[in-house]
Prior knowledge:
Elements: H1 2-14, H2 17-22, H3 38-59, H4 65-106
Amino acid sequence: xxxxxxxxxxxxxxxxxxxxxxxxxxxxxxxxxxxxxxxxxxxxxxxxxxxxxxxxxxxxxxxxxxxxxxxxxxxxxxxxxxxxxxxxxxxxxxxxxxxxxxxxxxx
Length: 107
């Protein structure tokens, strides 16, 4: 039960993910948005890590079934959140690049 509680705390702490915290959308006027893809890449890598944990826990016969289900569900939810954050981040950084390029062309 302690592992499930720790997993829940871990999931809640990491739920916001990097892209939702660090990526800004472009404002009107000169570009002042995030074009770096570092945060979405980190989110994508963490999503893959969580997917690996889901598979590892799902096939581990040494874990009690109830605990295994909790671990799989917690890591699956966390992985989905990281994936959504990565998509959000890649979308906003692409929008920023397009906005910056259009702004530069108009000058």
